[in-house]
Design brief:
Elements: E1 15-19, E2 22-26, H1 41-58, H2 65-72, H3 76-83, H4 90-98, H5 107-113, H6 118-124
Antiparallel strand pairs: 1-2
Helix pairs in contact: 2-3
Region (Disordered): 20-39
Length: 127
Amino acid sequence: MTKPDDTIRVLIPLTVRKKNGRPKIMPPADYRPSDDQTQDPHVLRAIGRAWGWRRRMEAGDFATIQELAEAIGLAERHVSRQLRLAYLAPEVLKRLTCGREPSTVTLYDLCRLSGETWQEQTERAHG
């Protein structure tokens, strides 16, 4: 056991890099996530939010993306980009939400993929 006045120093080899103007903590190059890791919670949350927005727009709560963005207090551009996630191919959505292996596809990649055909989305989102 340690004494109350002892100091324990833990070294975690992380690096900080800027990504899109924001600092991002990067793990060591040899880091491998555990086998039981699930999907990225940010991606899952964004997909759920996009589907909620889509349902509200289809129900007639909002006529335009601008109205939706104002109501939820987010930028119209952000809402427009994120709303695209509700139109991803069913196979891609299934892999992202039900798959057991962590996906290497980022949220940004998914938003860009949404403009392609479902077959192209499925092929490119395989990463």
